[in-house]
Design brief:
alpha/beta, three-stranded antiparallel β-sheet
């Protein structure tokens, strides 16, 4: 029975192991679809609707691959009297052989097509074209359904030209489409091509491009809000413990042990908060299966939030701090740039010292955290509260922000067919200075207030969110301008101005 509902339905078909499931995963924004190198991963048809704001834009059917196309074509040719009965002959084959295990896969993939689905035929452009596929293409042409062919080049060899010549004889539209690396713009272009296949699909697929464009913009704003909230939490965070008045004098083992415990808890909280931000961004973009190179709560030395390489990649220069509206003296104290302890926290050695009357922990030669402080006595039990934090160095805010923006870019540009682990190393490039002065100042002022442990007012929080949104837009443009497009997905071109 033919479908009459509005949302277009497409059956994604082809030879086994040619990237059909990868195409479905990307076009349906579903990274839970099984993708493997061995043939036969998909044995039954599964439907995957793409829904935005409770509105189904279109539905894709992931199907098994052809197994015996020549045998099927022989049967069709033997039972067809003329071209006019070919669609009915294909339907008759499916109904007659549905329970035959020899043709199980062919019946499974042809069923949605004879019920009215459009055809997306997927081939691998990295393997040479051969006449073996002609039986498959002939069968699909016999169905009479609108059809489009995608050349999804999986390997390094390129036989796209010969595939284009052959496919053009069988399909209404032929496009090259890399399911793993195709840009968002290519996704939209492909939807418009689908709309050419059947007149009644043109309007719903045009609407689909508008929905997806709006979804992309909404997600960018939601990402900015998530990053702003995490940045505020991390800048203001304190670790505290209530203890008796008779805490031993400074320098004793007990005091040093307390400092170490609170300090370690502070560092652990920051790592966990950044990890939660990353999971929130990935969930927002419907990436649920991403494997990252960092362990869950104990990251690789060179990519740690507190490593020296991270500071060198994402900390900003004194010149930037000055032009952002505050001056270099805002960086953890006026003399911070003259202090060099020569240690890194990347190896897990949280080396620090009490510096000056304020008492701050430093790592490398930049970051400062408010060290242990004892509050006033409370109540009849003469209790005191010991606190560690908040961070005093604005550089920490830029490190957190830079890493968050870079992670967001990788996720927002990652197709759902991608299965490679996500690697997020730091680097040494510059782009933040492209932001307008008001956005730079909004970020700087927010960090300056947060490092004092003060909460941002609603208008200040909104200003920070807007500035971070501008940073996301600027970073995407910066990556594109510097050749770090999705075709390369090179994660080593990131950073902040020095």
């Amino acid at each position: 029975m033919k479908r009459t509902d509005q949302a277009p339905l497409f059956a994604v078909v082809g030879h086994p192991n040619r990237g059909k499931s990868s195409v479905v995963a990307t076009l349906s924004q579903n990274d839970r679809i099984a993708i493997a190198l061995e043939p036969g991963t998909t044995r039954e048809s599964h439907t995957y609707p793409l829904t935005v704001d409770n509105h189904t834009l279109y539905t894709l059917v992931d199907t098994p691959g052809f197994q015996r196309p020549r045998r099927v074509l022989e049967w069709l040719e033997a039972h067809s009297l003329s071209a006019s009965d070919r669609p009915d002959t294909v339907a008759a084959f499916v109904h007659q052989h549905r329970e035959n295990p020899k043709f199980r896969d062919e019946c499974e993939l042809l069923t949605p097509i004879i019920e009215g689905a459009g055809i997306i035929y997927v081939v691998d452009g990295s393997v040479p074209y051969t006449a073996e596929q002609e039986a498959e293409m002939t069968i699909l042409r016999w169905t009479g359904q609108p059809s489009l062919a995608l050349i999804n080049r999986i390997g390094t060899d390129d036989h796209t030209e010969s595939w284009h010549k052959a496919l053009g004889q069988f399909f209404q539209v032929v496009r090259s489409f890399d399911a793993v690396r195709a840009s968002f713009e290519k996704h939209l272009s492909l939807l418009k091509a689908f709309g050419q296949l059947r007149p009644e699909w043109e309007q719903p697929l045009e609407q689909a491009t508008h929905y997806l464009t709006r979804q992309r913009e909404d997600r960018q704003w939601q990402s900015a809000r998530l990053i702003a909230a995490a940045l505020a939490d991390m800048m203001r965070h304190q670790e505290s413990r209530t203890l008796p008045r008779n805490l031993p004098i400074p320098g004793s083992d007990s005091r040093e042990a307390l400092e170490a415990r609170l300090r370690d808890r502070w560092y652990q909280h920051q790592r966990e908060r950044e990890e939660r931000l990353r999971r929130d961004i990935e969930t927002l973009y419907q990436h649920h299966q991403i494997a990252r190179q960092e362990a869950e709560l104990s990251w690789h030395q060179d990519h740690d939030l507190f490593s020296e390489s991270t500071r060198q990649a994402w900390a900003v220069s004194k010149r930037y701090l000055a032009t952002a509206g505050f001056g270099a003296g805002a960086v953890g104290g006026a003399s911070i740039d003259a202090l060099t302890l020569g240690h890194s926290l990347g190896a897990g050695a949280l080396i620090g010292g009490l510096i000056g009357a304020a008492g701050s922990y430093f790592y490398g030669d930049r970051l400062a955290v408010q060290a242990l402080r004892l509050g006033p006595l409370k109540g009849s039990g003469e209790l005191q509260t010991a606190t560690f934090g908040p961070v005093q160095d604005l550089q920490f805010g830029y490190i957190v922000l830079g890493r968050a923006v870079d992670h967001w870019w990788h996720i927002s540009e990652r197709n759902h067919a991608g299965r490679d682990p996500l690697e997020l190393p730091p680097s040494d490039s510059h782009w933040l200075e492209q932001l307008d002065s008001p956005q730079r100042k909004a970020i700087q002022q927010a960090l300056g207030k947060l490092r004092k442990g003060r909460q941002l007012a609603p208008d200040e929080q909104q200003g920070l969110e807007a500035a971070i949104h501008s940073a996301l837009v600027g970073y995407r443009k910066w990556r594109a301008d510097h050749g770090a497009s999705r075709d390369s997905m090179d994660p080593g071109k990131t950073g902040w101005p020095r």
